[in-house]
Description:
Layout (H helix, E strand, L loop, with lengths): L2 H21 L29 H12 L21 H13 L10 H17 L7 E5 L2 H16 L3 H5 L6 E6 L4 H9 L7 E4 L9 H13 L3 E8 L11 H11 L2 E5 L24 E4 L1 H4 L7 E5 L2 H8 L30 H36 L3 E3 L7 E6 L7 H15 L5 E5 L2 E7 L7 H20 L1
Parallel strand pairs: 2-3, 2-4, 4-5, 5-6
Antiparallel strand pairs: 1-7, 6-7, 8-9, 9-11, 10-11
Amino acid sequence: xxxxxxxxxxxxxxxxxxxxxxxxxxxxxxxxxxxxxxxxxxxxxxxxxxxxxxxxxxxxxxxxxxxxxxxxxxxxxxxxxxxxxxxxxxxxxxxxxxxxxxxxxxxxxxxxxxxxxxxxxxxxxxxxxxxxxxxxxxxxxxxxxxxxxxxxxxxxxxxxxxxxxxxxxxxxxxxxxxxxxxxxxxxxxxxxxxxxxxxxxxxxxxxxxxxxxxxxxxxxxxxxxxxxxxxxxxxxxxxxxxxxxxxxxxxxxxxxxxxxxxxxxxxxxxxxxxxxxxxxxxxxxxxxxxxxxxxxxxxxxxxxxxxxxxxxxxxxxxxxxxxxxxxxxxxxxxxxxxxxxxxxxxxxxxxxxxxxxxxxxxxxxxxxxxxxxxxxxxxxxxxxxxxxxxxxxxxxxxxxxxxxxxxxxxxxxxxxxxxxxxxxxxxxxxxxxxxxxxxxxxxxxxxxxxxxxxxxxxxxxxxxxxxxxx
Length: 470
């Protein structure tokens, strides 16, 4: 493809992208296809000869698009959003064009220094202490693994990296409602799933600090070495808020690394009125949240903060001769701040988003989403056929249809969800609370408006009423 062809096709794609943003609500949120439907339309072998871009783009529209789940749709209310804004998409285009590999300062000086600056901006926007230093990771799963690995190395004076495990019997603790990536990190770090301790939660699904301390003390008495506690600002099922200050106090007492997982809900700390959630965070060792979830920056972009960057760097640094430069002692080489050597220029899109929206614009959108969550919670409480299953501190609402034989309610709620999702009008998911099938909606899409939530609630009521009459 020559430059003129590139220019022509790029304009075509941008026109298509703009139309997509404008018309995404016209697509069914969840595609009505079966496993294998896309695969069987694709050739079994790569083409021997070059194909025209027009043919490639036609196949994208005819084969790929019918199999896409539309996360961009404001009727996507499942999971947590993988959010974006037009500014972040434009920045991603520039990132791809530049092709910067940001492993060390010398390979992309502007990328390294922009990342340092933007991470300071974000830290201050969230009201985090200035003792935290930030780095961009790909996902919160990776950041949490970095935290546990750093905790492991600091606890052993970096001997596991050098000699492997000897006789250490480490334990890691988290709420029973914590994200599955925590247990995965415990496995990958070589600590073992048997040494992961899920801690019971209270009626609000938040970790019980007294149970945490009892478990830690019991482990110590049995010869284990408590290594790390992961607390949550916003669990995945219900956005429950663990008692960060109480957990920090316990960790300080026992000299345990405290990692705060705020992957989704951490964005809400941009709102001064929501900073009650992070009380005590100043004594934590690390903190993570995902701008790619609720700060309108397209996937992937995770903000990871540490109080002790020297231990983080010493955990990961390996410097062969071919990576040494004359300015290493003057700069931050972010390849030493995490697992991969290669790094994308993620700071660019975060910079674009913050500048294009402004802190006030981000705050206004977050407040709107939280207000919509509170509105639906109130509607559920008022409705005689539904019950609210968990508190709603933010914009994730968990509730359940209750009219029917008790032994059939799980099936009825699942049928409500499946019937609606199959219609393509709305996509939401479930969780299990009190061992009961629970409907779960999250309102975080960039372009979400009140009428989307009102329509979703009406659709759920109508679908439930139809089942009730059967």
